[in-house]
Design brief:
Blueprint (H helix, E strand, L loop, with lengths): L1 H17 L16 H13 L4 H7 L5 H5 L7 H10 L1 H10 L10 E10 L5 H8 L7 E9 L2 E8 L5 H9 L8 E3 L7 H8 L4 E3 L10 H8 L3 H4 L3 H14 L8 H31 L8 H6 L19 E5 L6 E5 L12 H4 L13 H8 L2
Parallel strand pairs: 1-4, 4-5
Antiparallel strand pairs: 1-2, 2-3, 6-7
């Protein structure tokens, strides 16, 4: 956990520095806290889904003030106001975290989900209003690559889903080569709008559809394998709402937008921190890239982690070595976090620096995360 926290703080500071975030809002301010410290605290607050009051009580009992060099603990009112001030920087930092990892051509998916703004049961709403109503729900649209959120759009009033996509599309820094959508995207103007930008549009065609050149092409040969990547949207929506809650706590429009921006920044940050673990796990499946001396050094049941080119990761991988053969079997290590063993370039040898086919993005991740 300490490794993730330190690396996450460094990444956030780096992004804030790129965006030109000032150290203090005003030259005559008390200078008790720096602005980037408020931004980091807000990200951790949303990550662990704590109210402002509980977070202020929880903060002194952790190592976070030491890692951030905090001289004092802020109150809940300060954090609430700072989240609204930092709104444009939080939105830009969430997007900048993903840009170095995007390939030249990639497939993205778009989908909309709902967030509660008033925690009232449908039975209560029917008793008060006389009928079931969708009022009290915010519309949130995500454009996703893998588990990273590239751009998002929040609407508190009803709006067409494709119009929300066009509004969010203006904020997208790097356009995908293919966009997959559900049946809501089965529209000839929608396909034409994307093709004018050189982007392939994929959406399942409704039954009984006859008109539309691009719709007829999809009916003849539908790219099911590419369309299956739309599962990224469903998984991201589930992870986002399961981790950060399915409702908005703020009452004002600016506060709700700032709340969503901070949650998206926390989602992208921790997804990027965990990406290196996944790639290292894939690398260990190829025993030919491990040194023979390194294989013999692993004992049965020993928890360790592969660290290539000086990149340090948390020990979520248990490597079991069979004495009768050199084949390595991998399994996730249960239980609490144990101290990891960092092995540098010399211990791995030259063969370990090669990237197998199962880990195509390892060098990109190692280069970006090691900075």
């Amino acid at each position: 956990m300490a490794v993730d926290w330190k690396r996450g703080i460094r990444l956030l500071r780096k992004q804030f520095r790129k965006l030109g975030l000032p150290d203090y809002w005003h030259k005559n301010s008390p200078h008790t806290y720096q602005v980037w410290q408020h931004g980091v605290m807000l990200v951790f607050l949303r990550r662990y889904a704590l109210p402002y009051t509980e977070f202020v009580e929880w903060l002194p009992n952790t190592k976070l003030p030491e890692y951030m060099r905090l001289s004092a603990i802020p109150d809940e009112g300060t954090l609430c106001k700072e989240e609204k001030r930092l709104l444009p920087f939080l939105e830009a930092a969430a997007i900048l975290l993903v840009l170095p990892l995007l390939p030249d051509a990639f497939v993205a998916g778009a989908d909309m989900t709902g967030l509660q703004t008033k925690r009232a049961s449908p039975y209560y709403i029917k008793r008060v209003m006389g009928s079931y109503s969708r009022r009290g729900f915010a519309r949130l649209l995500f454009v996703v690559w893998k588990f990273y959120i590239l751009v998002w759009e929040l609407r508190l009033l009803p709006k067409d889903e494709l119009k929300m996509l066009k509004s969010a599309w203006k904020k997208l820094k790097k356009k995908p080569s293919t966009l997959v959508y559900d049946k809501k995207g089965d529209s000839e103007p929608h396909h034409e709008w994307l093709e004018q930008q050189g982007i392939r549009s994929i959406a399942p065609v409704r039954k009984g559809a006859r008109r539309g050149k691009r719709r007829r092409e999809l009916m003849k040969s539908f790219p099911q394998k590419t369309y299956n990547k739309r599962n990224w949207n469903e998984n991201t929506n589930y992870r986002f709402k399961n981790r950060y809650g399915d409702s908005l706590k703020a009452y004002t429009v600016k506060g709700r937008r700032a709340e969503v921006a901070t949650k998206v920044l926390a989602q992208n940050l921790w997804t990027r921190l965990k990406a290196i673990i996944t790639e290292l796990f894939n690398m260990t499946q190829h025993s030919e890239y491990l040194n023979t001396a390194l294989k013999n050094s692993f004992l049965f049941g020993c928890r360790s982690v592969l660290v290539a080119c000086g990149t340090v990761a948390r020990p979520f991988i248990r490597l079991r070595a069979n004495k009768s053969s050199t084949k390595m079997q991998n399994s996730l290590g249960p239980g609490s976090i144990q101290p990891f063993f960092a092995m540098g370039k010399k211990a791995l040898g030259e063969k370990a620096t090669k990237v197998p086919a199962a880990a195509p993005h390892f060098l990109i991740l190692a280069k970006s995360l090691n900075s």
